[in-house]
Records
---
Amino acid sequence: MQAETSTVSLTPHTAPSHQALTLVGRSWAGDGTSCFVPELHCLWDCGAVVTPRTPHAIFITHTHADHVQMLPYLLHRATVTDQPIPLYLPAAFVSRLRDYLHAHQHLVQSGGDDDDDNDTDYTDTDTKMSYSRPLYERCTLVPVQPGDELTVRIPARRDPLLVRVVACHHRIDCVGYSCWEQQTTLRPEYRGQDVAALRKQMAADALFRTTRRPLFCFLGDTTHRVWTQHAELLQQHHVIVVECTFLDNATVNKAVATRHMHWKELQPIVNAHPNVWFVLLHGSLRYSSLQRLRFFQPPDVCPHRNVHVLVRPEDVAREWQRERDKNANKTNVRSEEAEELAPPTCQCVRCQPSTGV
């Protein structure tokens, strides 16, 4: 059931180890998008199963199936003793998602529409999935709307996760999540002094200061209008996780019709912000992993190398070998592909850190 995933560091190789963040995910348009950050124990969207762990919080950008379809499985997998998982989603869909979870419960458990009392009480010893508690009771649905500021407490982390909800531009209500870490540090003028003694003499807010450190921004399905509406994101964040469904000129109209991001609209933003690193999700299934990665190889496509495409290197290698075998006896193969002696790899500044963002 668990999907094959890609893993990428969200922090530069020069960052202190205690600040390290890793994104583990899978994202293909219409197939499934889900990203887990293990250091935060949080999940963004649930269109695929990308971790065996139960997240401490789930952030849903919108309720298209490829972003929520694996929620029932994830909630079934949670143990009966687990606290309800906070699940944040656009306010317009709270009641509908509750109905969806309720309907799914009946589909897999009850004997029919009128069999409301058939609450099977057991745990599958093979899958460790529990059926003794309704799905909609295993999570707390939290409605959000653009402009909301969330404080999310993460077990085993001293400081909370601060999340600002931003509006995305899609066919249905859709949001993104601008994520920050709140840090409480000793004021500079008291460094080197006896903090324990100072605590007895001073109020905490006089002794310590609270600051915010940007972590990353995770945007839902959207068009380029998000950059006009939320230009501050490009100034605040050094890491933005964003969709780029379409790449080639033949799909420009398709992107407009479906309200998805096209590289033609994203490229000027990427090139104008060399200090921002963009992780691209939600590729159209019309492209293979090899095609998506190869698209960004020419230097003129992304001169600052500040784009990372979320694809599995194993898939790229397999597709490259299949292409190579297929073209072995052909004479009209494009020269640049014929000269490839190994599968292409990501050339972004994080993967090839000769210079870094």
Note: The chain has a mean pLDDT of 88.
---
Amino acid sequence: MSRTCRMSFELLATDGKARRGRLTFPRGVVETPAFMPVGTYGTVKGMLPRDIEATGAQMILGNTFHLWLRPGTEVIKGHGDLHDFMQWQGPILTDSGGFQVFSLGAMRKIKEEGVTFASPVDGAKVFMGPEESMQVQRDLGSDIVMIFDECTPYPADEDVARISMELSLRWAKRSKVAHGENTAALFGIVQGGMHENLRMRSLEGLDEIGFDGLAIGGLSVGEPKHEMIKVLDYLPGRMPADKPRYLMGVGKPEDLVEGVRRGVDMFDCVMPTRNARNGHLFIDTGVLKIRNAFHRHDNSPLDPSCDCYTCKNFSRAYLHHLDKCGEMLGSMLNTIHNLRHYQLLMAGLREAIQQGTLAAFVDAFYAKRGLPTPPLG
């Protein structure tokens, strides 16, 4: 079976373990390291597509599980695909639904064939396996398709993590077969919990099957940060150098920096958008809580070093007022800023890697926050 992947990856520069690269798709270019805003239901909450683009985001994430349940692929296919439905013309990565099924807890039953669960929309009994996930992602017109896997819970002892990882490998094979001649990129997902030997067995198994890129799954699921860093200390560097590396569901600005330092190319997380709606705004010195009373009379911009629409036009006092009144514009302006902050961080990391000055960039990043630079493992 001949298949040519419509995604290409070019490694442009390195600085230590960190990588500066470029993903190219028919729909556009994504400079890496890259952060993808999350558009769970076919929308990045509170953001018009043009506003997402204005933040500097080049690729977004859509959620297979939620879009499959509502509105359903028939509605989306009636417009063409997810790009046409939501009017985002850049590349889209879709997760497989595995993490959302994992999140259902007692509402789901896992078997070799796949997962049966009660729909969180209407309670109906629903089944999803690798074949169903691949078909939904094909219908969505995804540019990067993620395999269907089981997200290993935390904590998980070695036996539990091994059984979960081996099931995910079998599902990875079925995902590859079901993906067939689809020219969208297909990414494998490394599982194995916090156990290095299992992570390496997972990576070897995925390499044997053959994927267009690889992701690190099963992190940011409740483990202490030092456990996550421990995995990142050894895993990215052992992943194929000629393929993109994606850290799923992570995280805070500090987590992005630490991931990039260790060789990760791609990130996604709801944190900048969710925190924006809760009035937690990211600035160079850390987090600003806009609902605190002392912002009521503060006429200064949110972040003088930021060039986003919010910072160029509105005061902290106005954003505080919108938050206190529960006005939807407050969430929208906050989201514009947080997403721009993340994109400026990624652009700074890319430039530093290109120039060979990453260590100085990282030192300055932490110094602004009054923190020491963490050691590299």
Note: The longest strand covers residues 8-15.
---
Amino acid sequence: MGFRKSYILDYRVVVKPDKRLGNNKLCFVAYCPTLGVADDGDSVQEALANIRKTITFHMECLQKEGREIPIDKPEEELVTNTRFQFSFGPTIRFAT
């Protein structure tokens, strides 16, 4: 068996409240934009624990396929909001 080196990698994760399909029960979705993977949980803590497992699995798959491991570079990105005007018809419904 070959030598294995361990790395500590940091990835941004966005956690948002959501509702489960079918029962509308509150849940939380954790999304890692750099890797393009997501997972969920009944609490923020559970969603974070699940996304760590998903990230680990994703890394294992990338390594097995001989693909490069993406590195999160938040200093190269700009996260902002934008405002725009749009005319809606009389039956518009906004999500809550």
Note: Strands lie at 14-19, 26-32, 37-41.
---
Amino acid sequence: MHLILFISLASMFVTLLNSYLTFYHVQKKLLIEQAVKVNSSYSSKLSVTVDNFFSMSEEQLSYSAKLIASHIQSGNLRPLQAELQRIHQLSHAFNSMVVVTEHGQIIAASPTSLNLTGITLTSNRHLTTLREKRFFISAPYTSLSGNYIIFISYPIADDVGNYLGYIGGSLYLNSRRILNEFMNTQFSNDSFNTYVIDKEGTIIYHRDTGQIGKKINDSHILSSIANQDKGSFMMPDEQGILSPASFIRTQKAGWIIITQQSFHSLEEALNDVMISVLKQGTPLGILTLLALSILAYYIAKPLRQLSKSASSMDQLGVISKIRAVKAWYLEVEQLKRVLLMGTVLLHKRIGRLSSEAHTDPLSGMLNRRGMQESMEEIRSEYKKISVIAIDIDHFKVINDSFGHDVGDEVIRKLSQQIRKNFRKTDLVCRIGGEEFLILLPGADIHVATVIAERLRNNVANTVYMPGYRHHQVTISIGVTTFNPQKSALDIAIKTADNALYKAKNGGRNQVVVEYLSDDISLAQH
């Protein structure tokens, strides 16, 4: 049973472990795929939000540019300063604002504390803005005052489309106001790591402000986002573990928003699912374990019974025990059939060997060993047993004169005649070459004497050697009786032998009776 139960439990454990691991990997793959979809959706949402911010900024600058154009044409510059202060104070969209002519001269600025009015701009970035003559968002750069900024501009034109300059505003990327604060509000989500980078791979937004302005040098990340508007890839999270990330390119600025769920959050979700699976599967697992134990018990029960019977195949009654085993499945039925056949054959062989061990092969009678064992079985059942000792007269002469074959034939015929003269319950034995011994349970000495005399007479009147009629076979007999509960069998046999000896000395072919002396019987008892 233990082996069957062990195999069953091992199979169950391997199956459950395989199922659990398979489910784990499938669920992990599904969670990663789901994370990619969520990342992509979140990135798209943020992209729309950023584009809306720049669209609103464009609308504000466009409206102001139309108002400012007429004032520039009239040469009245005072309203320019008022318009910049209005936008700066009401929208809070920009950290600072300027109006620049087509020649690069700042003709209005807000806040006035910057003292920018009258300065002529000659930098490459300014020249690029002048050349663009459209709504333009610059690449991030460090200003003269040390602020990391981007500059948003909108062209100013007269009624016929002549370029007059531009109106623009700066946004401090490392400031907690304006765009950065806007991004913190929109991008703040503990479940996601969000990065905003420009076309050159420079970080524009990161919740760790210390990362802003740094370039991404990871070739895998750069190659994954190059020349694509959106997509997904694996990148290290803040703990350095590869996690799924999605990106999308904004339409207005061309910035790339990367959204990533940390591996830790995915791992927590996966662990929650697996714990839930274990909790839900445990009751069924316990029931399965119980069912396996019960099934193993009933599978092993007939095997255990057959094994027990196989260990005692030589005992009496084992065949009936084997037949009583309930073989409820084919393998046990076949094993039972084979074991039963083997046991029957074994018992037949044991019986044959036992018979050979207890039987004289020439006469077919019990030998001395068989007589002693049979005597032990009946000793307690009788208070008197008669003993008859028989010896063939002049048997040596028969062997010497006519050969051993004739002698053996005489023994066989005499054995048959002896068996005919006694009961089936009597123990008929050949204990020597020409010596026989008969035990008569329950017969007193008078009955035994009559039977012995009858046997002697029958033998004397029977022809044993038809070819040698001149030689008649006779027997001498000694008779005694003893109480098996008081006297030993050896004493009784010795007494019968003494009587037999007297019969031979008295002329042979006669029956002599001798009683056990009370002294000997008592001494033996």
Note: The two ends are 55 Å apart (CA to CA).
